[in-house]
């Protein structure tokens, strides 16, 4: 399984919002600058995340974007599912009826177990844990900032 730019950049967008949680709405151009991602590309990511209830927007002079939930309540599996779709390694894991060989296929069992491991890891990794990991890295490296 290989994540697309959409998934990777979406996680960075959400992590940036989590890092600035409590500071008020964040402008998309500020995130774009910090993350070195085009603002135009970030616009493509905002709407699906907003529709999924992960981001709220505020209009006006002091508008911008904020997380709709606490960072501890948003995990990477949720973010990536919205932006990437299915995270299973092969189609037959989610849709065994689509393959005549599925009932007796030992390789499907391997892909099922591998997909489960990936999903479990992504579900366990919340934005809160990522913020904590980022802060540890910032403390140990000379001023790198997200």
Describe the overall structure.
The chain has 146 residues and is mainly α. The protein has a single domain (5-140), classed as Arc Repressor Mutant, subunit A. Helix content is 56%, strand content 5%. The protein contains 7 helices and 2 strands; from the N terminus they run H-H-H-E-E-H-H-H-H. The protein has helices at residues 5-19, 28-35, 39-51, 76-84, 91-94, 106-124, 127-140; strands spanning 55-58, 64-67. It has a two-stranded antiparallel sheet. Strand 1 and strand 2 (64-67) form a beta hairpin. Helix 1 (5-19) crosses helix 7 (127-140). The radius of gyration is 18 Å and the shape is elongated. The protein starts with a helix and ends in a 6-residue tail after the last helix. The model has no long low-confidence stretch (mean pLDDT 92).
Detail the topology: elements first, then pairings.
Elements (H helix, E strand, L loop, with lengths): L4 H15 L8 H8 L3 H13 L3 E4 L5 E4 L8 H9 L6 H4 L11 H19 L2 H14 L6
Using brief descriptors, characterize the structure shown.
146 residues; mainly alpha; 7 helices; 2 strands
Helices, by number, come to 7
Low-confidence stretches: none
What does the average pLDDT come to?
A: 92
- Give the helix proportion (percent range): 55-70%
Give the C-level CATH assignment: Mainly Alpha
User: What would you call the shape?
Assistant: elongated
Q: How are helices and strands ordered from N to C?
A: HHHEEHHHH
Instruction: Give a quick account of the main beta sheet: strands, pairing sense, barrel closure.
Output: 2 strands, antiparallel
User: What would you say the CATH architecture is?
Assistant: Orthogonal Bundle
User: How many strand elements?
Assistant: 2
CATH superfamily: Winged helix-like DNA-binding domain superfamily/Winged helix DNA-binding domain
Percent range for β-strand residues: 5-15%
Return the CATH topology: Arc Repressor Mutant, subunit A
| Number of discrete domains | 1
Cα radius of gyration in angstroms: 18 Å
Strand order of the biggest β-sheet = 1-2
Terminal CA distance? 26 Å
């Amino acid at each position: 399984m290989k994540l697309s730019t959409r998934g990777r950049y979406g996680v960075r967008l959400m992590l940036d919002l989590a890092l600035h949680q409590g500071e008020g709405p964040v402008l998309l151009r500020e995130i774009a600058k910090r993350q070195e991602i085009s603002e135009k590309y970030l616009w493509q990511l905002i709407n699906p995340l907003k529709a999924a209830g992960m981001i709220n927007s505020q209009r006006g002079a002091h508008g911008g974007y904020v997380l709709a939930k606490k960072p501890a309540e948003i995990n990477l599996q949720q973010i990536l599912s919205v932006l990437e779709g299915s995270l299973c390694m092969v189609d037959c894991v989610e849709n065994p009826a689509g393959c005549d060989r599925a009932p007796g296929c030992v390789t499907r069992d391997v892909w099922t177990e591998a997909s489960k491991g990936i999903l479990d890891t992504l579900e366990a990794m919340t934005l809160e844990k990522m913020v904590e990991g980022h802060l540890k890295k910032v403390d140990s490296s000379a001023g790198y900032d997200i």
